[in-house]
C-alpha cells in the first residue's frame, strides 16, 4: 500500500498520502501506512553512516564547500544543502513525484506499491533503486548510495527516522500539513529550481482556466462527492474540502455534494458500505484508482452493491477514477483536473 499518509493504509487523512494531520492517511493517497520503519542499529553501522555522509557531495567528490551550499527551510528547521544536488534520495512518494516533475531523477526512491504510482512516473520509478518497502526504510542501503541530499515528507514514521537519515546526508523534509502544494513547493526549494516550479504552477493555473472556460455552467450547478476504498472493516472513506481532491475542486469553483461537504474537521470520514445512499445527491463521484484504471483498495466492495449502482451519478455515468487521487505534485493535480475534464466532457455530449 502506498504510504503517502501514514497511519493506516492509503488514507489521505489519518495520520495519517496519507497522522492526525491530514491526508493521508497518503495513503498516497496508504492513504495502512504505518509499520514503523526498519531502523538499523547504532555502533559500527551508525559510524559507517556518518562516514558515508562525510564522503558524499554534489559532485561525488570532496565535501562541498560553503560556497556550494545553501540554506533551506524544512519541517526540522533550517538545513544546509548542496546548491546543485546530484545524488538525491527520496523517501516519500510526494517528493519523488515532485522531483520527476522538476526533471530530476532521484538515485533511489520509496516503494509503496507499483500499482499506486501514476503512470507518467512509472518508468522512471521502476528504474530507480528502492530503499524502502512501505514504511520499512533501509538506512544501510541509503548510506551505501552516498547521496548528497535526502528529501521526504515529515510523516510520523519518517519523523522518527530523521536523526538517522541526517547522519547520512543533508536531509530536507517538507511539512506534513495536509496541503498537496506543500511538498511540491518545498521540493523545488530543496533542489534550487524555482523556475521549474513557476512553470508547473502556471500549467496548473492554465488547466483550471481552460476547464472553467469550457465547462463553467456545468461546474456552477454540478455537485461532487470524493471517495476512496477504506481499510476499516466494512467501510469506505468520504473526503471533504480539505482533502487534495477537495481543494482542487474548490480551485475550480466546483461545489461539493452533501456527503463530502459534511466532512469539515478532518480530510475524510469512514462510513459503512451500506451507506451508499449518502452519495445520492452527487452529480459526479470521483474515486481513487490504480494506475491501470482499476478501483484502488477496497472500493469495489461499494461498487458491487445494488444501492450504489442505483445512485443518480452512477446511472448517469458520472463516475471517474484517478490514480492522482492522493495528490502530492503539480502533475498529480493536473491529472486530477484531466479526470474531472474527462467526465465533464462525457456528460456534455
Overview of this structure, please?
This protein has 349 residues and is α/β, with parallel strands linked by helices. Helices cover 37% and strands 16% of the residues. The protein folds into two domains: 44-193, Rossmann fold (3-Layer(aba) Sandwich); 196-348, Rossmann fold (3-Layer(aba) Sandwich). It has helices at residues 44-55, 93-101, 119-127, 139-144, 156-166, 181-190, 194-221, 244-251, 258-261, 300-303, 306-309, 312-315, 330-348; strands at 69-74, 77-82, 88-90, 108-109, 129-130, 132-133, 136-137, 149-153, 171-174, 224-229, 235-239, 268-272, 284-288, 319-322. A hairpin with a 2-residue loop joins β6 and β7 (136-137). It starts with 43 loop residues before the first helix and ends with a helix. Mean pLDDT is 85; it is low at 3-67.
Order of helices and strands: HEEEHEHEEEHEHEHHEEHHEEHHHEH
Gap from first CA to last CA? 37 Å
Fraction of residues in H or I helices = 25-40%
Strand order of the largest sheet: 12-11-10-13-14
Largest sheet: 5 strands, mixed
Radius of gyration: 20 Å
Count of helix runs: 13
Percentage of residues in strands:
15-25%
Gross morphology: globular
The fourth-level CATH homologous superfamily of the largest domain is Nitrogenase molybdenum iron protein domain
Helix vs. strand class: alpha/beta
At the third CATH level, what is the topology name of the largest domain? Rossmann fold
What's the structural domain tally? 2
From the 3D coordinates, which CATH architecture of the largest domain would you assign? 3-Layer(aba) Sandwich
Which regions are unreliable across 5 or more consecutive residues at pLDDT < 50?
Answer: 3-67
State mean pLDDT (0 to 100 scale): 85
In total, the number of strands is 14
User: In the CATH hierarchy, what is the class of the largest domain?
Assistant: Alpha Beta
Amino acid at each position: 500500500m502506498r504510504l503517502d499518509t501514514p497511519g493506516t493504509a492509503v488514507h489521505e487523512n489519518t495520520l495519517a498520502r496519507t497522522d492526525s494531520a491530514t491526508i493521508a492517511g497518503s495513503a498516497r493517497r496508504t492513504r495502512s501506512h504505518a509499520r514503523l520503519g526498519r531502523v538499523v542499529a547504532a555502533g559500527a553501522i551508525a559510524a559507517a553512516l556518518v562516514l558515508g555522509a562525510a564522503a558524499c557531495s554534489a559532485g561525488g567528490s570532496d565535501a562541498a564547500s560553503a560556497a556550494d551550499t545553501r540554506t533551506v527551510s524544512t519541517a526540522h528547521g533550517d538545513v544546509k544543502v548542496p546548491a546543485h544536488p546530484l545524488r538525491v534520495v527520496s523517501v516519500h512518494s510526494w517528493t519523488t513525484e515532485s522531483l520527476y516533475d522538476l526533471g530530476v531523477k532521484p538515485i533511489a526512491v520509496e516503494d509503496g506499491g507499483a500499482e499506486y504510482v501514476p503512470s507518467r512516473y512509472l518508468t522512471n520509478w521502476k528504474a530507480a533503486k528502492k530503499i524502502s518497502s512501505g514504511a520499512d526504510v533501509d538506512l544501510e542501503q541509503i548510506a551505501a548510495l552516498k547521496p548528497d541530499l535526502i528529501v521526504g515528507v515529515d510523516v510520523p514514521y519518517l519523523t522518527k527516522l530523521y536523526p538517522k537519515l541526517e547522519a547520512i546526508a543533508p536531509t530536507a523534509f517538507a511539512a506534513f500539513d495536509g496541503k498537496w502544494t506543500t511538498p511540491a513547493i518545498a521540493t523545488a526549494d530543496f533542489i534550487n529550481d524555482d523556475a521549474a516550479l513557476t512553470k508547473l504552477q502556471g500549467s496548473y493555473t492554465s488547466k483550471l482556466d481552460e476547464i472553467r472556460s469550457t465547462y463553467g455552467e456545468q461546474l456552477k450547478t454540478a455537485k461532487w462527492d470524493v471517495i476512496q476504498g477504506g481499510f476499516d472493516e466494512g467501510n469506505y472513506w468520504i473526503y471533504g474540502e480539505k482533502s487534495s481532491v477537495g481543494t482542487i475542486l474548490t480551485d475550480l469553483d466546483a461545489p461539493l455534494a452533501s456527503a463530502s461537504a459534511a466532512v469539515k474537521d478532518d480530510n475524510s470520514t469512514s462510513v459503512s458500505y451500506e451507506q451508499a445512499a449518502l452519495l445520492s445527491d452527487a452529480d459526479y463521484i470521483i474515486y481513487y484508482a490504480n494506475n491501470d484504471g482499476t478501483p484502488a483498495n477496497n472500493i469495489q466492495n461499494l461498487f458491487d452493491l445494488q444501492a450504489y449502482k442505483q445512485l443518480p451519478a452512477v446511472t448517469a455515468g458520472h463516475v471517474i477514477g484517478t490514480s492522482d487521487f492522493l495528490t502530492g505534485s503539480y502533475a498529480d493535480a493536473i491529472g486530477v483536473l484531466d479526470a474531472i475534464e474527462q467526465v465533464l466532457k462525457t456528460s456534455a455530449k
